[in-house]
Amino acid sequence: MLGWVCIVGLAIAAAVSLKGDQSPGTLRFAAGLLVLGVVMHAYLVRPRVRVVEDHLELVNPWTLTRIPLARVGLVLVRSATFVYVGEKRYVGVAVGRTTRDLAIPASMRGSRSSVFPSRGADNEPKQRDKQAETTERQITELAVGASPEGRDWPVTRVFAVPHLVVLGVALVAAVVLFAW
């Protein structure tokens, strides 16, 4: 949600500035906002981990990795989501824990003080921990129940060509306008 709010804010800022003035400085400003908007979309909106048919998809800012569920060996959510297929590791950046959460024991999380850790009344883990654990569990369960014929399917990784083209056009426009 935050990503979309930022992108809409950038679009409004560019539209308001271009409506009032089309000078070279304003065009440079709008081109810079366009580049920033494309990068923000790639890193704040696009990343996700999803299951489509018999594949696990790790959607990263500039790539899409499709892993047959039957080939998934181990799923770990640490700073990012790590999916192991045999000896090979694939990374999805959409779901992860913060460095702070990884470094501090679970009993002390949620507090800024290591002397007086704050605990909830019911000693419940934080929402991020629940999401990470749920992601690990659900993907593992889907992999265990996946069709065995998927073991022969390849793992594929493709670049997000439309996103990269838009980024390239935005960068070229910004460079041309800044050189003008």
Tags for this model:
180 residues; alpha+beta; four-stranded antiparallel sheet; three-stranded antiparallel sheet; 7 strands; 46% helix; elongated
How would you describe this structure to a colleague?
The mean pLDDT is 86. The protein folds into 2 domains: 2-45 and 162-179, no CATH class; 48-157, no CATH class. The strands form 2 sheets. The protein has a 4-stranded antiparallel beta sheet, with no helix packed on it. It has a 3-stranded antiparallel beta sheet with strand order 4-5-6. It has helices spanning 2-20, 24-45, 99-103, 127-144, 161-179; strands at residues 48-52, 55-59, 63-68, 74-77, 81-85, 88-92, 156-159. It is α+β, with helices and mostly antiparallel strands. It is elongated and about 60 Å long. The chain starts with a helix and ends with a helix. Helices cover 46% and strands 19% of the residues. A hairpin with a 3-residue loop joins strand 4 and strand 5. The protein has 5 helices and 7 strands, in the order H-H-E-E-E-E-E-E-H-H-E-H. Helix 1 (2-20) packs antiparallel against helix 2 (24-45) and helix 2 packs antiparallel against helix 5 (161-179).
Strand content: 15-25%
What are the low-pLDDT stretches, counting only 5+ consecutive residues below 50? Answer: none
Structural class: alpha+beta
Query: What series of H and E elements makes up the topology?
Result: HHEEEEEEHHEH
